[in-house]
Amino acid sequence: MPTRHPTLLETFSSRAQTATHPLTAYLLRLMDLKASNLCLSADVSTARELLQLADKVGPSIVVLKTHHDVVSGWDFHPHTGTGARLAQLARKHGFLIFEDRKFGDIGHTVQMQYVGGSARIIDWAHIVNVNMVPGKAAVTALAEAEAKWRERYQYEVKTSVTVGTPRSDTFDEQPEESGWWNTDEEGQNREGVGRKGSIVSVTTLTQHYESATSPRFPRDETKGEDCLYAGIDEPPIERGLLILAQMSSAGNFMNREYTQACVEAAREHRRFVMGFVSQESLNSEPDDHFIHMTPGCQLPPEGEEENGTVAGDGLGQRYNTPQKLIGLCGTDIVIVGRGILKAGDPQSEAERYRTTAWKAYLSRVTKNT
Length: 369
Ligand code: 6AU
Known about the structure:
By secondary structure, the protein is α/β, with parallel strands linked by helices. It has helices at residues 6-9, 12-18, 22-34, 47-57, 82-93, 107-115, 121-124, 137-153, 256-268, 322-328, 338-341, 346-367; strands at residues 38-41, 63-66, 96-103, 127-130, 155-163, 197-200, 203-211, 240-244, 273-277, 291-294, 333-336. The two termini are 19 Å apart. Bound molecules: 6-acetyluridine 5'-phosphate. 6-acetyluridine 5'-phosphate is lined by residues 41, 43, 67, 100, 102, 129, 244, 247-249, 277, 295-296, 317, 335-339. Pathway: Pyrimidine metabolism; UMP biosynthesis via de novo pathway; UMP from orotate: step 2/2. Residues 37-353 form the Orotidine 5'-phosphate decarboxylase domain. GO terms for molecular function: orotidine-5'-phosphate decarboxylase activity.
């Protein structure tokens, strides 16, 4: 049982006022608006299924969790691919995308995995998570990558060609540092973009950044419906990190000391770390306003005792009910995969989970008022 930290007693709308991270504040408002604290773990095997599922279950959830690397047919196109189409569905139904990438390597590598490669995860996933086994540097490195990306994102590259004799002040003597933050979506180096002009004869080709008109992300060029969920604005541009502090699987090695180190890392990066993937609330100091998302959640079949026990999956996964996780352990959002995916009607099963998890939250805060 966690200690009775104030966040356990507060409503999500009230916590939205005090949350340190802008994306956490947004998510808490979304939860209040949709009366949902449900995350769907969309562990399906094709991009087509993923998009159909997101469209169907979108109204019931506040977070859609992906494992992009288990999805066949994932289209990596930055503007029209699977990430961009998910982002469009996220706007339409009002949910955030959480790529369950569990980064777990040295700082330099996790930066490249987050921002670069074919997937360019940071472009379409509002939230990612980190497995902190390599140490706190992984969190620092991801925070740095996000800050650099955000700095760049707020501007669009504009290209202009002028003919004439360039003046000497058109040139910048200091070349920019090279790295993943200087590559565009096609992987081309953008080194120096925004600062230098290069001369071809007397023609000057200039590229510069201009403020983007909308923080919408990724820049949406997909065709079709492009509406924004009513009642709330666009999510903020800031990306968020969840630290994997406790696992649902039997016999995992995340002991108390490890979990405590995760909490300390979160406190050191409050502007980037939204909270934890954990099995209980880890807020303990007055300044802790972290959010907790919890996997290993299933309900007994319909018609059976709602708070009864649920067997594991035979592969190490253990399950608890929303009532136990939200009501007793004090977490905020339940992450449900196969409990919904394997149902005959995933859409109505998602509604059953949404109402049960929301009821558990309401009775927690009501009991405590
Ligand atoms: O509901 P399930 O068992 O079908 O799916 C649970 C989902 C899977 C796991 O990769 C993930 O939650 N997960 C995580 C996460 C989210 O990081 C941590 C953990 O401790 N246990 C767990 O199952 O996609």
